[in-house]
Amino acid sequence: MSRISGLGGRLYRGDKSFNIVSNSRRWYAISGLVIIVSAIALGTQGLHLGIEFKGGAQFTFTQKGATIAQGQKAVADAGITSESIVQKIGAEKLRITTGALTNSQSTAIQASIAKDFAISGSNINVLSIGPSWGKDITHKALEALLAFLLVVMLYLAMAFEPKMATAAIIAVVHDVFITVGIYALIGFDVTPATVIGFLTILGYSLYDTVVVFDKVRENTRSITSTGKYTYSQAANLAVNQTLVRSFNTSLIALLPVASILFVGAGLLGAGTLKDLSLALFIGLATGTYSSIFIATPILATLREREPAMKSLTKRVAQRGRSADATSLEGATVGRSTINESELPGIVTSTHSKEKYERGPRNQPKRKGRN
Predict the structure, then answer these.
(1) Are 283 and 200 in contact (CB under 8 A)?
(2) Can you tell me whether residue 355 is helix, strand or coil?
(3) What does the alpha-carbon distance between residue 241 and residue 233 come to, in Å, rounded to a whole number?
(4) Which residue has the higher pLDDT, 9 or 179?
(5) Is residue 318 a part of any domain in this protein?
(6) Are 20 and 296 in contact (CB under 8 A)?
């Protein structure tokens, strides 16, 4: 930890710096590749929506030694030919998910499960959701997401500046799209708990981005009057100054989420905890990446297009060339002075110099000894 704190101090003072903003094309290429893979996964496989969104029936029961093959056999014995998903939750719990069923079909599956697994029908938890209710939930989830983005954009535009708001929203859309793409690629079910996780990671991503942007605003407040740094250089300094802080807060946030994911979903078999913690874990990691490597470079790119920032870049470049020329001239003059000073008898006054140039021949003659 002492090494990390020491690195944070050097980054904050500018003694050490990572070229994050200047390497923006590299980060854009990485994000673009992931986005393309996510788009392909969404286009080919699509999202695996839970029954809360598409409607259907779900049968959950506990039976020691129950297998997925036995669950599939129970559905087949009930005469259900529609697609069904059998999942093992924990060590002893089994979940069977089907499409929308009639009352007679649901009763048939429940009876088949009770017969094949030798359990009472009252020990089977049955959840049935109609398609219309699922569509209503989907519509409300999309409305909540759009309302959230609109409110955040208005807040950022008022608290900071429009271009900061634009960069932050691009980073948020980047996080959501990649997270959704990972869900489609791996085949995770999207449930209402997943939507809650999405909204949570949006808030966290914006929180980290706002912290970085606040430091950028502080570093660039009087940048045009001083003319020492370009906007990209000042923004890169801000990212480096908040780099260790972002790493620490993200790590602290990911540790309890990972614990919930491992204990809640892996050991206890709680499906809701799995859906929530999985979305949080993927989103937190993506949000940390976007706040550092996406949001700030985009902001610097947008601001560098302004006429004032273009003029500032030219002044800084000109000042740098002048400083290099001055340093080179000073080094040359300094070296020649040193060489002259190494010669004995060299002085700077004109009279003394002439006297030195006359040499011993012009010195007064000494009288001979008697």
Answers:
(1) yes
(2) helix
(3) 12
(4) 179
(5) no
(6) yes
Same domain (yes/no): 160, 285: yes
Cα-flanking dihedrals φ and ψ of residue 81, to 5°? -100, -10
Distance, CA of 32 to CA of 263 (rounded, Å): 34
Q: List, as one string, the DSSP characters of 298-319.
A: HHHHHHHTSHHHHHHHHHHHHH
254, 253, 273, 272: which is closest to 263 by C-alpha? Answer: 273
Are both 73 and 169 inside the same structural domain? no
Q: Flag whether 360 is in a domain.
A: no
Q: Taking every pair of C-alpha atoms in the chain, what is the biggest distance, in angstroms?
A: 149
Task: Please say whether the beta carbons of 80 and 222 come within 8 A.
Answer: no
Lowest mean pLDDT among 8-12, 43-47, 155-159, 305-309: 8-12
Q: Distances in Å between the alpha carbon of 194 and those of 87, 136, 274, 300?
A: 18, 16, 9, 33
Position 234, amino acid:
A
Instruction: Choose one of 81, 107, 129: the last residue of a domain.
Output: 129
* pTM (predicted TM-score): 0.69
Are residues 228 and 81 part of one domain? no
Is residue 290 within 8 A of residue 283, CB to CB? The reply is no
Of the residues 311, 336, 357, the one at which a domain ends:
311
Task: Residue 117: give its domain's CATH number.
Answer: 3.30.460.30
The residue that leads in pLDDT, 159 or 113, is 113
* Listed residue (289, 284, 313) closest to 300, CA to CA: 313
Polymer length of the chain: 370
Residue keyed to tokens 């919930």: 260
Residue 358 maps to a domain: no
Q: Which domain holds residue 103?
A: 56-129
| Distance (Å, whole) CA 296 – CA 213 | 7
